[in-house]
Amino acid sequence: MKKFLVFFGKPFIYAACFAIILILFSVYVLLDAFVIPKVYAVIDDSISESITKSESDSESDIIEKSDTEEQPAETLITAMSYYDGNIDLKIEKFTENGVVLYVAELKLSDAKYLRTALAKDKFGKNITEKTSVMAERKNAVFAINGDYCGFNDNGVIMRNGQLLRENPRKKRCGLVIDRNGDLLIIDEKELTAEKLKEINAVQCFSFGPTLVVDGEININETGKSKDNNPRTAIGQIDALHYIFIVVDGRTKTSKGIKFPALAEEFKKRGCVTAYNLDGGGSATMWFNGKIVNSPTDGDYIGERKISDIIYIGY
Predict the structure, then answer these.
(1) Which residues of 44-82 are buried (b: 16+ CB within 10 A; e: fewer)?
(2) Residues with Cβ < 8 Å from 254, sequence gap 6 or more?
């Protein structure tokens, strides 16, 4: 017993114990930040279905629309296009100056076909799935990665009419999709619960920067990478008419793109609004059961697990 007390009475033992405690604490912090899942909310898709319907729609109107729109008479699908009367989608691949980009032009008959999904249908921290997994679970026609909303603790986040986080970033704009399917760029400090309700918001994304406003390039935010990188972004031409762009990068085939050049891609296609989403290794475009682009973070080739997607489907 005396030897035991003498051993633990030595100064280096206290230092060793302190070091072990410090290591265990550091490991816990890392696991908490990047591994341990934390669920904050479960998403109810039925809310999105109801909130996108016009207030003037009567029950009979909704039933009639369901009979005609949910059961398209004919579906035409090719390797890079889809048409069924409600969804008109065309995807093109462009290679310009060492950059490979995929441009999807989309026309919808109703805003309710523009949807979002979260990994495992839950909002939280370290809850992730691949874009393809989420898209297939939702029987999507088309999907891109979203803003990786579960990675950060700040930003205003709404999905399917549910306000999931109200923690606005300073000097940053969010992207709102309203009940009519219109894209709105709004300073996050203005995006209160009351404001989101007032503008009939259905989705709200927190990433950026803004690329196009009122038809003109408008990149006025700082803090985002200014280098060539893989990118994902969304834009609107007019009512229910959209452009999605995913750019490959960090490979010998495609170096990626800078924000001004990305904004120009939207402007020249007639977009009045465009907004950058999560990029890098997250940048993914999925269509009809297959990944269209070549996702990579520069080291690993393939899809990254992320927290959310934007998808088109029923």
Answers:
(1) eeeebeebbeeeeeeeeeeeebeeebeeeeeeeeeeebb
(2) 95, 98, 99, 100, 101, 230, 247, 248, 294
Quick one: which of 207, 209, 234 has its CA closest to 221?
209
Query: CA geometry: angle at 232 spanning 228 and 238, to 5°?
Result: 125
The residue extents of the domains of the chain are: 37-312
Per-residue confidence at 217, pLDDT binned at 50, 70, 90?
very high
Closest residue by Cα to residue 254 from 279, 276, 236, 228: 228
Record the tokens describing residue 109, joined without a space.
């008959």
- Give the predicted TM-score (pTM) of the model: 0.83
Which residues make Cβ contacts (< 8 Å) with residue 24, sequence separation at least 6?
none
- DSSP conformational letter for 129: B
Length of the chain: 314
Q: What are phi and psi of 285, to 5 degrees?
A: -120, 130
In terms of Cβ atoms closer than 10 Å to its own Cβ (0-12, 13-18, 19+), residue 36 is: exposed
- 27-70 pLDDT, tens per residue? 444 444 445 665 666 766 555 555 555 444 544 443 344 444 55
Residue spans of alpha helices (H) in the chain: 2-8, 11-34, 45-51, 59-69, 131-137, 193-198, 259-267
Q: Which strand ranges, in their side-by-side order, compose the sheet holding 210-213?
A: 76-78, 81-83, 87-96, 99-108, 241-247, 231-238, 273-276, 210-213, 216-217
- Give ∠ CA 47-207-88 in degrees, rounded to 5: 55
Burial of 166 (0-12, 13-18, 19+ CB in 10 A): middle
